[in-house]
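Late entry, evening session. Most of the bench is empty. Finally got around to the prediction I had been postponing all week. Sequence below, unchanged from the version circulated by S.P.
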Amino acid sequence: MDVSLADLNHQVLDGGYRILLEFREGRYLEHKLFRIWLVDGDGCSSKDPVFEGIHSSGRPSQGIKGWIDGDYHEEAKLEGREVILPLKGLDRALFKQLGRMIPEGGSLMVSYAMFSGEGKVHRETRVGLDRGIPPVATPLGSLLFEAGCGLHVKDWYIPEGGREGPPKLQGHKPIDEEEAHRWRERLRGELELFLETEKRLGDEVREEARSKASRILRSLHGA
């Protein structure tokens, strides 16, 4: 069943929080510029968006599938208090909703180097990638996995053409079960190798990456 961008509006996340969506037409017919605010059970919305970007419905005539390219912000200020999305599981819930917008063969892209509003999730993702941690085991990569776009994650650390914005992770949704199987087996091998070679205790970034890699592996073995 096709899901439109407008279907995100008022979707309930964990803990009674929900999404408030605003969008407008983009440069191309299939593009929508959108922003998402966090709203609590009392109807108070965050001062700034927790996610903002471009949604493309794709170009079927050219074989281009739908995609999202945007910036995620893990901290939300609501009337004098601050909500840290990862501490409440709201980050995973949000990305699961974003993943609903991605069709088979499409992709979800999220920046990890921010012009403004950089948070812990961006810094630890960048540090992890610099240290050779598999992209899916970084904080942002694991969120792409939650969105159903984590079997094949690419690190765009050098944008092509110079117009794609800052460095980002791009998670792909498989076109069919055959492709999903190939990606799943490859990812299993990559994560098993990472865990085998990273047995020593390390700093917080490596420890968190090991935890994420183990959790994703359990999910893959259960698939």
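Two things to note before I forget:
The first helix runs from residue 90 to 99.
Residues 5-173 form a domain with the Aminopeptidase fold (CATH 3.40.630.30).
Will write this up properly tomorrow.
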